[in-house]
Amino acid sequence: MGVSLLPSPAFLGLLLFSFVTLSLHPKPAVAITRHYKLDVMLQNVTRLCHTKSMVTVNGKFPGPRIVAREGDRLLIKVVNHVQNNISIHWHGIRQLRSGWADGPAYVTQCPIQTGQSYVYNYTIVGQRGTLWWHAHISWLRSTLYGPLIILPKLGTPYPFVKPYKEVPIIFGEWFNADPEAIINQALQTGGGPNVSDAYTINGLPGPLYNCSAKDTFKLKVKPGKTYLLRLINAALNDELFFSIANHTFTVVEADAVYVKPFDTKTLLIAPGQTTNVLLKTKPHHPNAKFFMTARPYVTGQGTFDNSTVAGILEYEESHKTIQSSHSTKKLPLFKPNLPPLNDTSFATKFTSKLRSLANAQFPANVPQKVDRHFFFTVGLGTNSCPQNQTCQGPNGTMFAASVNNVSFAMPTTALLQAHHFGQSKDVYTPDFPVNPLTPFNYTGNPPNNTIVSNGTKLVVLPFNTTVELIMQDTSILGAESHPLHLHGFNFFVVGQGFGNFDPNKDPANFNLIDPVERNTVGVPSGGWVAIRFLADNPGVWFMHCHLEVHTSWGLKMAWVVLDGKLPNQKLLPPPADLPRC
Question: Where in this chain does the record put each Plastocyanin-like domain (predicted)?
């Protein structure tokens, strides 16, 4: 039976008419509403010859990609089909006036209970680039995560060469055991948690692990093309070095903010961070394959997963190469050289190359005057062992972590609700210390007393306050790099250094012209970092170390930003389906 595939004259006329009208009246890029449904469900997954039933979104590991354009509104319905409480964070999304959709459990919402659902409703304002989403309760983000890709507005080009293809690469950690059991046991005993069994690239550990060769991520490329790799570190507890043998990256974006492009053979990416790189492939088929590997950058004294994840970069065969009888089986496989595990010098050099574009189209609006100065120590400490219990932390204590020696105690009701409805009594106090209550030589010999205080304390900021925050690592239980993530804002990294911050000398060297703008920054091991941000987003905003073990131990706090005077400076009322505690 013949079917006519030619369009009717009437249809052609309509097409021509719409084309002409569109050409005569070019419309600005139209924002749309995008709907997604995330079903949180158990799924059997096998890696390293271990099969386990684990919490996933839509049965996928990693979870599905969420794609939108700058200006779009997202309505994401999350349905909880598992026994665990669930909440999802949209990491790096500003959530202007939509704090109810930010996602950290007991901070902006109560978690979604078994059999319940919640619609995360937010608009992407003035952002484009690679972000990601993940569970924000206990250690569930070990399996609940995926890319969140924001394309520029229609018709707006990238400020770099248009890539031939875009590829998300998301690093993770695989545990043969249940991560929830691991952290629960560690919190009971006071000791350090067991480490992961493998790192993964897009959920796959690769051929350097036993029983894993079939689970290898392969990136197939064509010669002479430019690929945009959207790199995301979703690992629980490890900063990672990443490199592709015999290839160079051009870094063009960090944490969904464009940067001045620079070339590097290896990059460093902390949990919570994203980095976009251009990969220019070789002009001709190289008759070889190339390992892409990642392994940890380690500064602390605890145990860690000292293994390497590998994927393979393969060039597609053209007809010519196939005819010249190069079978892919025989091609040599090159391996990259990654820096030593504790290479802080590389880490410092790499991060110092990151600079904002700071041009007319993408300005760096660095606060030049500061309304409020804060100095926070970040690091480890201890809690006393409860009576009649043996603890496995340092000298029979329990591991803890703190900001200004306050180990944050999570409330049982959400902070944002308590603030919004004026019911903060018995939930939190607004007296988080602006400076350490007991100053000491932060990076010198640690004090004898390492016991932390515990409390639910917040900092309160009037709307539009400009903030400068110095975060100082401490040597208590060992100096360590801490990737600190601030919800609800991007901040400018205006300075960093080693040793103790000197308020008299160091600010003179701050970069207030083109500092990198991001949402997660590594506090250098045995050093400090200075950030500035404008508190222009009303709500309650979590700030915590993105090494999940440190968050569990209390290295977290929150900022309350009050409503402004104008209607568009006030937090919107909570949605009707906001989960109850």
Answer: 43-153, 166-318, 432-563
- Return the closest-CA partner of residue 335 out of 387, 376, 294, 390: 294
Q: Which single residue is written with the structure tokens 């200075």?
A: 530
Residue 281 identity: T
The predicted-structure confidence for 156-178, as pLDDT tens digits, reads as follows 999 999 999 999 999 999 999 99
Evaluate if pTM is beyond 0.90.
Answer: yes
Residues of the chain with pLDDT under 50: 1-26, 328
Q: Rounded to whole angstroms, how far apart are CA atoms 421 and 415?
A: 10
The Cα–Cα gap between 106 and 100 comes to 11
Asked whether 92 and 255 are in contact (CB, 8 A), the reply is: yes
Task: For residue 189, give the H/E element and its range.
Answer: helix 179-189
Find, among 192, 204, 186, the residue nearest to 61 by Cα: 204
The structure tokens 């309304």 sit at 371
For the beta sheet containing 117-123, the strands, ordered from the edge strand earlier in sequence to the opposite edge, are 50-57, 33-47, 73-80, 117-123
Q: Which two tokens stand for residue 27?
A: 């419309």
Alpha-carbon distance of 430 to 410, in angstroms, equals 15
- Residue 458, C-beta contacts closer than 8 angstroms, at least 6 positions apart: 415, 428, 429, 430, 432, 540, 557, 558, 559, 560
